[in-house]
Design a protein that fits this description.
The protein has 2 helices and 11 strands. By secondary structure, the chain is mainly beta. The protein has one domain (about 10-130).
């Protein structure tokens, strides 16, 4: 996996079957689901909710501004394999930002939930996130 500092117990992944890009500023993730050790300690995930993902940790050498995207979803389904299925998943972002990852069907996101335990969550607006490619390496933002 990539070279990010992330305790295994706080690792949350979102994986999908297909990415759709109908227009700039939005990507839809088809058949998306959450998985990972963070789900063992997570509270119930609500339908029709979202989190803010901050990709700046992966980009610090390339950009000098904030790179935040909104990950939103509709219906949530708890599966027997301990994954959480998500319907109507979208990633929305400022379409004027340059270097936005062109997510591929085989990519996935690793989300760091460390600062989102109950006592810390109110002080942390964003979840650090990393784009990982099919070879388990970081997304190449220099493309």
């Amino acid at each position: 996996m990539g070279q990010y500092l992330l305790s295994e117990k706080f690792k949350l992944e979102i994986t999908w079957r297909k990415v759709l890009r109908p227009k700039a500023g939005i990507m839809y993730l088809v058949d998306a689901y959450f998985s990972g050790p963070a789900l063992d300690q997570a509270e119930k995930i609500n339908d029709n909710d979202h989190i803010q993902l901050d990709f700046v940790s992966q980009l610090t050498t390339l950009i000098k501004s904030v790179y935040v995207a909104k990950l939103s979803w509709g219906e949530v389904t708890y599966n027997k394999d301990k994954t959480i299925g998500l319907k109507n998943v979208a990633i929305t972002y400022d379409e004027l930002l340059k270097g936005i990852p062109n997510l591929e069907d085989k990519d996935y996101l690793v989300i760091d939930t460390k600062n989102h335990e109950n006592e810390k969550h109110i002080y942390n607006m964003f979840y650090p996130a990393y784009v990982v490619n099919k070879d388990n390496g970081f997304y190449n933002y220099r493309r």
